[in-house]
């Protein structure tokens, strides 16, 4: 039996990017029940990719009740629906075998990974205050993509002078804007910029200087995306809600590394249940952005542990 439930988790603060604001994380929780055991998974449908809670629920409810991971890859395209079911099936298989998912996937035992902490888009004054509040965190991720980005970036650097910074433009710039900003990003110690140009309009990245690494997010979903990234990007951002689950995420990570890309592992704003499988993909990644639970006012009953060493692998009671 496959059950899907819509759930909402309050955010600790309003979260804003260039596309809008939210006060809660709306997720779908999937339970796959077989032989008295239950596997869990979570996804966050994303309107940017034509997904909604209703459309993704319909995709999941249309699956055969006895589907396995191999059949799932063919039955659903990459995206949120396949992600939740794939992760639930991994969890179920591990419970049946009495082993951890990382063992079943042939991976080394996972360790804590330092993660970015995302600062919401706000006024420069408020972003400086937020940066100062979180200046103890090793890596801050800044949401930009507006006409006032330089003042915001300067404010964050002033608030957190020692923190590493990565920037996410969320497709909000043109090639001209990026070229103008790039020297200033380098001056302010930004380590990487994520998706500066809109997906599908990013060919100019192959023709302009890239003085700091550029990471593909909306332009990279699964392994089939890699061919279109050549010469334009230096990194890929792997998110399970884009790849369609842990199965493809691990395959994409290996394929991307084989083609010379550095790896970032990111997330939508979800709970610890969504982050748990991503922690396995994040092992050894150059940038880890699995801070979803840190943005929540409430989480799963057995949340992931976060401390100075980073986000820890999940306990069995949560997933895997």
Summarize the structure in short.
The protein is an alpha/beta fold.
Strand order of the largest sheet: 4-5-6-7-8-9-10-11
**Whole-number average pLDDT?**
95
Count of runs of 4 or more consecutive helical residues? 10
Rg from Cα: 19 Å
**What is the strand content?**
15-25%
Shape: globular
Written as H for each helix and E for each strand, in order along the chain, the element string is EEEHHHHEHEHEHEEEHHEHEEE
Task: Return the structural class.
Answer: alpha/beta
> How many strand elements?
13
Largest sheet: 8 strands, parallel
Q: Please, what is the oligomeric state?
A: single chain
Ranges with pLDDT <50 over ≥5 residues? none
Distance N terminus to C terminus? 19 Å
Helix content: 25-40%
Write the layout of secondary structure elements.
Elements: E1 2-17, E2 20-34, E3 37-43, H1 53-61, H2 69-75, H3 80-97, H4 101-104, E4 117-119, H5 124-133, E5 139-143, H6 149-159, E6 164-168, H7 175-187, E7 190-194, E8 214-216, E9 235-238, H8 240-243, H9 246-258, E10 262-265, H10 272-281, E11 287-288, E12 306-307, E13 310-311
Parallel strand pairs: 4-5, 5-6, 6-7, 7-8, 8-9, 9-10, 10-11
Antiparallel strand pairs: 1-2, 2-3, 12-13
